[in-house]
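Hi,

I'm pasting everything inline rather than attaching a file, because the server keeps stripping attachments. The sequence lines come first, and each chain or strand is labelled.
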Amino acid sequence: MSQEQVQILQRALKREKAARKAAESILEEKSRELYFTSQRLEQLLDEKSSQLQGVFENIVDAYVVMDLQGNFIKFNEAATKLFGYDISREKVNVVKLIYKEDYPYAIASFTQLQTKGYFKNYEARVYTKSKEVKWVHINASVIFDKDKNPVAAQGIVRDITDQKESEEKLIASENRLASLIVNLDSGIVLEDENRNIVLTNNKFCELFNIEAKPSDLIGMDCKAASEKNKVLFKNPESFLQRIRAIDAAKKVVIGDDLEMVDGKILERNYIPIIIGGSNKGYLWTFKDVTLNRTYRKSLEVQKQKYYNIIANMHLGLIEVDTKGKILMVNQSFSEMSGYSMQELSGKLSKEVFPIDKKSSEIIKDENIKRNKGEANSYEIQIKNKNGEEKYWLVSAAPNINIEGVQTGSIGVTLDITDFKNLELQKEKLLSKLEKSNDELQEYAHIVSHDLKSPLRSIHALVSWLKEDNQGKLDDVSIQNIGLIETTLEKMEQLITDVLNYSSVGAETSLKTEVDLNSLVNELVSILYIPEHIQIKSLHALPNINGDRTKLQQLFQNLISNAVKFIDKEQGSIIIDVEDLKSHYKFSIQDNGIGIEKKYHDKIFKIFHSLKKSKDSSGIGLSIVKKIVNLHEGEIWLDSKPNIGTTFYFTLKK
Amino acid sequence: MTKKLKILLIEDDMIEIMKLNRTISTLKLDHTIIEANNGEDALQLLEQKDNLPDIILLDLNMPKINGIEFLSILKKDDVLKYIPTIILTTSNNQKDLLECYKIGVAGYVLKPLKYEEYVSKIEKLLSYWSINELIVV
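And the predicted assembly:
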């Protein structure tokens, strides 16, 4: 080997040595670095695992570890607190914790844990040591050893009891709300922003005659439905137009009326639901207001009816305020007064209708009464627009508002001018009649006086003739003078009777209680009754309310008539009475000459004496009839010629 | 002692006047009769206050002033109202009777039809008044 070669080799060795040395130092450096790194890593690992340990130990939720038999081997603090068991002191198996009803669910979840190695979002109830039931949420997984064999299971348990409770409450209140909506008396449709039904209720189905459950309608497109259902409305086209307009405007619409073909009237409200500035849908509500509308309508009808009555009745109607200013009059009042509503409105009634002093006094008095709240009626005399005097009957009542304050008066007026004129005419006639009656009475007296005076004078003169010619007159002359005197007497009687006849009924008769029994007895004792005539009363006569003198005259006339016309050897007069309801019926029967039927009516007429005689003027029975009439009775007779006559008459009790 | 009466007869009927005169002379009574045919005449006569009658016989039916009017005037006079006034009339009208007594009369006698009755009534009337004490003015 050459030096050179040795040298080369030596130099190469030297270089190699240096390189190795450099490599060694690098390696040293690197291994030192590596050591430090591994040191750091280990440290980091420790750190991390202790960190993790702390996390599990310290997390708010419970952390549990159990062996494959379900025995708990680790509880963190929260778990101990949640379940109430101290597992360092007692053995606890998971089965003990499972709520009875949740058992199948728990088993299923465990099976999942075993097969898949985990389960998530397990929510069930558990018993705590104190047998309290709690809702828990569990996520669990299996723990494996380094050879991938399962050794345990771990889980994070969250107490969700409170959350569950509030959830339940929420659900309950949602249910309540839902059932409220379902059963609401208004039809409700909640639509989403695309006008699909989100919610509706029974009433809605009922209102639109939809034979489906409200829940079946969810998701239905309302836009299409309204097109289809337009036929339900009286005016389908305007219904659609309106819906479109509302839909386009998207503004709240309250109180639209929809008239349906079946007569129903619906009130529709539309409320767009806007949350946070964006449209979330629409709420439609429908309410059946048919009844309300018909009420209002019938109210209108009633109002119109009364308005028509007021307007067209033949009574004037006037409404004034408390100062007498005219507020309203009806058509009849305008016709009665001659003034139109325009002419009267706002005027004071007393200025429009000039009235006489008497009427204005009446009005003043009545207004005072009315201001005290009294209703009243009175007659006044007014002048209408044409200046004609009219009599009005006014019936007025205070007008009181809801608060009970008098705001004026309402008067009903009736034109009684015609009645009033008739009344005045009647009064005039009556007083005239009274006067002429009086005059007639006077006249009768004067006439009888004037007729009697000459008779008296003749009588005096004849007497003087007789006196002055005593002894000079022959028998025939004396007899004739006697006849003159008799004639004079008869003449005077006639005049007296006429006067009596005209007096009956003219004089104001005084009615008192009259005992007819004693009256007739008295009469019989006073009157001249021939021996052959017997008077009998079959029943006691009653007491009567009447004019004593006239009743006496009545019985006297009838009894003396009977006496006068008895032609039999044995005369009999029978007086009887019968009690009728409101009257007594008397009868006076004789067995005299009788009266032919054709004279029965005539005999009651004045001057109709059938038998002319000295003591019969023919006035007696007409006086009798007059007296009977005065006592509100009637008189008639039964008679057979030659057998006798019965006079019947009634007198009011 | 019977008094001798001064009688004022107010009567428009001539025969009635004759009747009274004849009655008095028939009965031989010593009374004086002053005649007046109507109320006006009578009032004129009664103006002579020194020659007033003791009694007045008054007919009701007279022309001009009738009996009742005359009576009213009489009763309003402070002096004349004391003279007893007897109505002598045909009228038995209740109204007249009432009115007369209301105003104030001393009697009311109806004239009968028969002259003999008349004589009898007048006799009684005058004999009554001739025994009465009368106010002398």
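The mean pLDDT of chain A is 83.

If the labels don't parse on your end, tell me and I'll reformat.
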